[in-house]
Amino acid sequence: MDLAAQAGLYVHVPFCRRKCPYCSFCSAPPQPGDLTRFLAAVHSQMRQAAVLPEVQALSFATVFFGGGTPSLLPAEELAGLLTEARRLFSFAGGEPEITVEVNPGTIDAAGLAQLRRAGCNRLSIGVQSLDDAELRLLGRIHSGAEARAVIAAAREAGFDTVSFDLMYGLPNQTPGSWQATLDRALALAPVHLSLYELTVEDGTPFARAAGRGEWRLPGEDEILAMMAASEAAIGRTHLMRYEISNYAVAGRECRHNCNYWRNGFYLGLGPGAVSALGGERRSAVADLDAFCRLVAAGQPVWHESERLDQEAAFRETVVMGLRMTAGVSIDDLRQRFGIDLLAYYRPTLARLLDQHLLMLRDGRLFLSNTGLPLANRVMAELV
Ligand code: SF4
């Protein structure tokens, strides 16, 4: 696969109407004037990036507006960013996949129709739960009914690919209540579904509430029961698991995220966005003020950059690739890095294969059904 012809363009929109208490992403409620200066800075950053040789070497296959809550931007502004991206960057390989993350309660039918007309062809909706008590505990701004309404409106607006996210492992959640959410979600017949376990990140209000014992998080056995319930329920649909947390009907896998898991090339725009270009990974400053100031001065926005040597890049590509149920191709890795996977990991691999956590078939290494719920443990041995 020619990764340079499959590059991803990511635009990080660092605004949310209200900060969810579990969230550690780069996002905050916008102050007056923030949206305008953010948009001006991203337009400038695009023009600056477009003349870089490492960007000119790429052809983009996907665009992803993530956040934060991109749907807080007026639809015509998102369309304007897209028009500018199409003008400045190469999109040589046919119609790109263009995703917008949307939160219920932040966009109406007219906005969705406008996004569709602008060429957006995929929506990722932050549903998280269809249980109003859970949504309130999560501090989400929407109800289950509003989530259902935006899914229906997205389809009405002509989006064939509507994905939504659900979270399990929530405070006070039981395998039974998770099953009920899952059943309600699957009744909406999604073509793509992402299931994430809640992680309580240090420094968030959720971590403090957990420390005070305000609620109980499900234990390990309950989490495993929730994962098993997900597999059983999804196994009765047309959805197939293609990544640890992601399920899709055939052909609707998220191409943008698959590029990350293949350790491909991507250009990230906006504060806190990460780029992988010319063998280097660079993270932009996460602070909106600093980001706008640096862009206006024509200075690099990178706050950190890292160049991995060939062996470290190989290991990273193996670990990320194992997130996908198709795993990694031994031949592709040899061609890309000049390293033989089987020889490189020989004793570790022999043990993991023996424990039936990994499998080898048709020249590919992948996590077994036993290994998938224990992916972190397996990857820690290979990283
Ligand atoms: S909507 Fe998403 S990005 Fe925004 S605060 Fe909530 S979890 Fe974080």
In words, what does this structure look like?
The structure is a single chain. This protein is α/β, with parallel strands linked by helices and 383 residues long. The chain folds into 2 domains: 3-261, Alpha-Beta Barrel (TIM Barrel); 310-382, Arc Repressor Mutant, subunit A. 40% of the residues lie in helices and 20% in strands. The longest helix has 17 residues, at 34-50. The two termini are 23 Å apart. The mean pLDDT is 95. Residues 16, 19-20, 23, 25, 27, 67-69, 103, 126 line the site of iron/sulfur cluster. Residues 16, 19-20, 23, 25, 27, 67-69, 103, 126 line the site of iron/sulfur cluster (SF4).
Topology:
Elements: E1 7-13, H1 34-50, H2 53-56, E2 60-67, H3 75-88, E3 97-102, H4 109-117, E4 122-128, H5 132-137, H6 144-156, E5 161-168, H7 175-186, E6 192-197, H8 205-211, H9 220-235, E7 240-243, E8 246-248, H10 255-261, E9 266-269, E10 274-277, E11 280-284, H11 288-296, E12 302-307, H12 310-321, E13 328-329, H13 330-337, H14 341-344, H15 346-354, E14 358-361, E15 364-367, H16 375-382
Parallel strand pairs: 1-2, 1-9, 2-3, 3-4, 4-5, 5-6
Antiparallel strand pairs: 6-8, 7-8, 10-11, 11-12, 13-15, 14-15
Helix pairs in contact: 1-3, 1-11, 3-4, 7-9
The structure holds iron/sulfur cluster.
